[in-house]
DNA sequence: TAGTGGTCTAGACCACTCA
DNA sequence: GAGTGGTCTAGACCACTAC
């Protein structure tokens, strides 16, 4: 059960940076020194450092060295949607997930198009409202192809669906595409959320693909305007 | 003036995929075959393929090979904000950039905090409204540290500021962080944009850092709700 | 000039997929 | 068992930074 060397180096440094043991501006040992210290080759060290670089932990400057970046200024997560759990944790506020619906039903026209499947193909539908501080502010509508996810339940939906898919079902998720826009709120939004006066809602459409490039999940995450936040971190790409 | 081998391979394949010469599902030659074809080593080929993989051009599956992904389903750009120019191009609609202001002025309290500089430090401010189909729908407010960007003008602001910074001034941009949220629209928004009835506006805050980790630019891009769109593409990370 | 990261090589062994 | 991508090695030369 030996871990890859480069992942080991990556994990050690990311943890140290994350925990504050390595302060921003600190210069890391040179690649040659690290190779010697970890008793490995320089290319393997570079693999680890490039991961740290891409994820925003360090900066690499030719001729100078690698330096720890200030991630506290970045307020985590470095990239992606502020998840429901993180938002609740940050606020230190009481939070709940309310499973409204978990049913297997034939896909309608709109959904069939989103999931790129024939009309009326059976699809698992999971609808959950997210509540923070007694207010329902996010509506998550998940749809799964039933030929790939044969079974779901309210119990699974209350926990982590992803752990179920990856660990229990062994599905290999390869990539996902998010599409963010703002749209007029629907009657359903008003029924299931505490929308207050807001006439519009932030819609995050998420398309999840397996390793074999099959689109198996479509998720619509609908956020009340005032509680929405998204963070994106990008390294400059040369070309 | 020899281009890196791995970038050459990357460019050839990304162009072929982009232009449709290589159809989705096509299997690329194996890494060993590519190494021989390009008269290089396998590790160099892998560098090119991993770039293609990270950018969503191909899928790599252990034991099977590398396959072209369907990027048309992703509607470009694969990631990031739909830029003003792309939006205009997609719509095939007439568009304009209206430079409202280009001045050097001392930073107020809010801006000094955003740029992490002392109060009243001189800062270049550029305000531009973006018009598509006769409607002003985006307000871009750019702020640059004047010790790093000593001069700006309305002429530069009308063209590409980034080309000016990178080519003319030789600034090395390292990374940027975006923060997206929705906020009540201000009096300035209403004055400079055609906001219609909308009471809220999508705010994209962009923090741009140089290679030496100095934050030198802060941009606020304010989008009318109904015209905003953001796309995010993410590979699944193992850990 | 010494030290750094960026590119590249020519091998090697492994884990996985598929016929 | 043949072929594939994933990891790793022990070198090499180069471009850039700093002193």
Automatic annotation (TrEMBL), chains A, B:
<dbReference type="InterPro" id="IPR012770">
    <property type="entry name" value="TreR"/>
</dbReference>
<feature type="domain" description="HTH gntR-type">
    <location>
        <begin position="3"/>
        <end position="71"/>
    </location>
</feature>
<keyword id="KW-0805">Transcription regulation</keyword>
<dbReference type="InterPro" id="IPR050679">
    <property type="entry name" value="Bact_HTH_transcr_reg"/>
</dbReference>
<dbReference type="InterPro" id="IPR036390">
    <property type="entry name" value="WH_DNA-bd_sf"/>
</dbReference>
<protein>
    <recommendedName>
        <fullName>Trehalose operon repressor</fullName>
    </recommendedName>
</protein>
<dbReference type="GO" id="GO:0003700">
    <property type="term" value="F:DNA-binding transcription factor activity"/>
</dbReference>
<dbReference type="Pfam" id="PF00392">
    <property type="entry name" value="GntR"/>
</dbReference>
<keyword id="KW-0678">Repressor</keyword>
<dbReference type="InterPro" id="IPR011663">
    <property type="entry name" value="UTRA"/>
</dbReference>
<dbReference type="InterPro" id="IPR000524">
    <property type="entry name" value="Tscrpt_reg_HTH_GntR"/>
</dbReference>
<dbReference type="Pfam" id="PF07702">
    <property type="entry name" value="UTRA"/>
</dbReference>
<dbReference type="GO" id="GO:0003677">
    <property type="term" value="F:DNA binding"/>
</dbReference>
<keyword id="KW-0238">DNA-binding</keyword>
<dbReference type="InterPro" id="IPR036388">
    <property type="entry name" value="WH-like_DNA-bd_sf"/>
</dbReference>
<dbReference type="InterPro" id="IPR028978">
    <property type="entry name" value="Chorismate_lyase_/UTRA_dom_sf"/>
</dbReference>
<keyword id="KW-0804">Transcription</keyword>
<dbReference type="GO" id="GO:0045892">
    <property type="term" value="P:negative regulation of DNA-templated transcription"/>
</dbReference>
């Amino acid at each position: 059960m030996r871990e890859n060397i480069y992942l080991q180096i990556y994990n050690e440094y990311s943890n140290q940076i994350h925990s504050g043991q390595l302060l921003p501006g600190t210069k890391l040992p040179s690649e040659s020194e690290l190779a010697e210290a970890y008793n490995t080759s320089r290319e393997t060290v570079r693999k680890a450092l490039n991961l740290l670089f891409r994820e925003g932990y360090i900066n690499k400057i030719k001729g100078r060295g690698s330096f720890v970046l200030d991630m506290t200024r970045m307020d985590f997560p470095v990239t992606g949607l502020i998840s429901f759990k993180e938002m609740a944790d940050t606020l230190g506020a009481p939070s709940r997930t309310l499973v409204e619906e978990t049913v297997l039903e034939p896909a309608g026209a709109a959904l069939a198009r989103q999931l790129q499947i024939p009309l009326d193909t059976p699809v698992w539908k999971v609808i959950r409202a997210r509540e923070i501080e007694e207010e329902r502010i996010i509506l998550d509508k998940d749809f799964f192809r039933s030929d790939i996810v044969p079974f779901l339940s309210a119990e699974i939906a209350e926990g982590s669906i992803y752990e179920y898919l990856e660990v229990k079902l062994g599905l290999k998720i390869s990539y996902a595409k998010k599409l963010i826009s703002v749209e007029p709120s629907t009657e359903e939004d008003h029924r299931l959320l505490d929308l207050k006066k807001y006439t519009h809602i932030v819609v995050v459409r998420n398309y999840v693909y397996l390793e074999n490039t099959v689109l198996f999940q479509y998720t619509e995450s609908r956020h009340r305007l005032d509680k929405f936040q998204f963070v994106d971190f990008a390294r400059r790409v040369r070309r």
